[in-house]
Specification:
Number of helices: 16
Number of strands: 18
């Protein structure tokens, strides 16, 4: 309690030093600064490396295309585009009025350098393998950019609309190299906001970019305060010290929604909670699919959702992706069946159970509490769980491209909490995390299944929607029931608590906010 009070006091002091209500959109009726409290900071502000979420990067960077609040693809820096008859060559026609925050005029040549970096297999960035279907990406003149595919891509436009393809300033690529995005000074995008300061773990400031090619942001400054404790974020909003609170707890969501002057927004998201298996070793119990099946049957998803997430209206997931993702099929919730779990353990040679290590973290909403419940549930079938709770820094460090030997030597968790989602298409969602890989930079648990690999490869190039949906349904059946990839638990809602003074708030299913249009009335 003492720690909570200390943090809240520090937060209130910091916020009290910020600008108050000054001239806004209509003669002082709106604030110049909106304060947003959020639980977790960004890992890096390099769009080709960022894995934190999709909330911040799109405020600083733009690409050829993007998504609107309804997840529709829209033109950004590309004014228009067309494809060859076979869909293998895509030509983008760029606007001529786009500038980086540094003042550099943006042209197709900047996109060429950006894609060279993204596609460089000798020096890969995190998302290089996502775009290995691209054969070439070249500027044919200042405002024409041509992407040629090496193979058909069913959802090419969705992949190009993601933030990983946002344009970078070539001068910054050369100047900062691998450190690009590590500091506010190294961020130079073409988005509606500039990053003016970043004190990691504490605060980030977004300042309106007045030379933005689109509609200029309505609010001069957004201040993102990092407040790890959910209760502290709720109090900051309740006391008027913040205007938007991100990721409030289920209990606080119910309480805040009942208060005058506060609204809780709960919209369908693209993410889910899952507990992924470490399949990297042949000599551990979880290497046996029957053991993984048993663990899945032993975890009661309905009870977890009811106990931990009913306040957010979150429910058990019925696939390996949310319903709005292209390729979704409902294959049902793996049922809670203790007797079946025990039978499977006996078949696998563990009639008396075994001991395993499970990692969890408060990075995910009620991740620690969910881990504690899972300890009890697995105990019912004879599995003794050593629960390891890690801080965000340790969690982030675990996915750095380790080989199986390195991962087990450094971490060795048999199962670990993970978020999954944030995509509009099954291919870009599943291929990266499920296809066999030598390291865990994308496939975090070293999952490998020959049939799944073949299906993923086929789904990526299948253009017929019915056939494609059947492919991803089969992948869901294998990875949930036959050779489990992980234990998928619940769909996640995009949850924000807002002052009623906030106007024009919109969030996409991929949890990207339209900060450029947000305003806050002054009291």
């Amino acid at each position: 309690m003492k720690k909570l009070v200390t943090m809240l006091l520090a937060l209130l002091l910091a916020l009290s030093a910020m600008p108050g209500c000054v001239a806004g959109l209509a003669e002082g009726e709106y604030k110049d600064t909106i304060v947003w409290v959020i639980g977790n900071d960004q890992d890096i502000l390099d769009p080709q490396m960022n894995v934190s979420n999709s909330k911040v990067i799109p405020q600083f960077y733009d690409g050829l295309l993007g998504f609107d609040a309804n997840n529709n693809i829209v033109c950004k820096i590309a004014e228009s585009y067309e494809s060859s008859e076979d869909g293998m060559v895509w030509t983008f026609h760029l606007r001529d009025d786009v500038y980086f925050h540094s003042g550099r005029h943006c042209t197709a040549h900047d996109f060429e350098v950006t894609f060279d970096r993204l596609l460089d297999e000798e020096n890969p960035v995190r998302y290089t393998t996502n775009y290995d279907y691209i054969e070439s990406a070249v500027a044919t003149d200042d405002y024409t950019f041509v992407i040629t595919l090496g193979e058909p891509k069913a959802f090419f436009l969705q992949s190009i609309a993601k933030h990983q393809t946002a344009v970078l300033n070539p001068e910054y690529i050369e100047k900062y190299g691998a450190d690009l995005g590590e500091t506010a000074e190294s961020v130079d995008g073409c988005g509606p906001f500039k990053c003016t300061s970043w004190e990691k773990g504490e605060e980030m400031r977004f300042e309106r970019f007045d030379d933005y090619y689109g509609d200029v942001a309505k609010t001069k400054e957004i201040v993102m305060m990092i407040v790890p404790e959910q209760t502290s974020r709720a109090i900051a909003l309740e006391t008027g010290q913040a205007d938007i609170a991100d990721g409030v707890s289920p209990d606080d969501a119910v309480r805040l929604d009942a208060l005058d002057g506060i609204t809780v927004s709960k919209t369908d998201g693209s993410g889910c909670h899952l507990w992924q298996f470490n399949c990297a070793s042949d000599d551990t119990p979880v290497s046996d699919p029957r053991v993984r099946q048993a663990i899945s049957y032993a975890i009661d998803k309905e009870t977890i959702c009811e106990y931990l997430y009913s306040g957010l209206e979150e429910t058990p997931i019925r696939s390996v992706m949310p319903p709005f993702v292209a390729g979704y099929s409902d294959v049902g919730v793996v049922p809670y069946d203790v007797e079946k779990a025990k039978e499977l353990l006996a078949e696998a040679g563990y009639p008396d159970g075994f001991e395993m290590t499970v990692m969890t973290t408060a990075v995910y909403n009620r991740g620690v509490e969910m881990g504690e419940i899972i300890v009890e549930m697995l105990g019912e079938v004879g599995i003794t769980v050593n629960l390891e709770v890690v801080e965000r820094a340790v969690f982030n460090s675990a996915w750095g491209g380790f080989t199986p030997e390195e991962f087990n030597a450094n971490f060795g968790w048999d199962m670990f909490i993970m978020g999954s989602g944030g995509d509009a298409d099954a291919d870009t969602l599943l291929y990266r995390i499920m296809h066999t890989d030598d390291t865990n930079i994308n496939n975090y648990g070293f999952y490998s299944n020959a049939e799944v690999d073949e299906l993923l490869e086929k789904g990526a190039v299948t253009m017929d929607e019915e056939e494609r949906n059947a492919i991803y349904k089969r992948i869901a059946e294998i990875t949930l029931y036959e050779d489990p990839f992980g234990v998928y638990v619940n769909y996640r809602k995009n949850v924000y608590a807002l002052s009623d003074n906030i106007e024009n708030f919109a969030v996409s299913p991929m949890n990207t906010m339209d900060l450029a249009n947000i305003v806050c009335r002054a009291d």
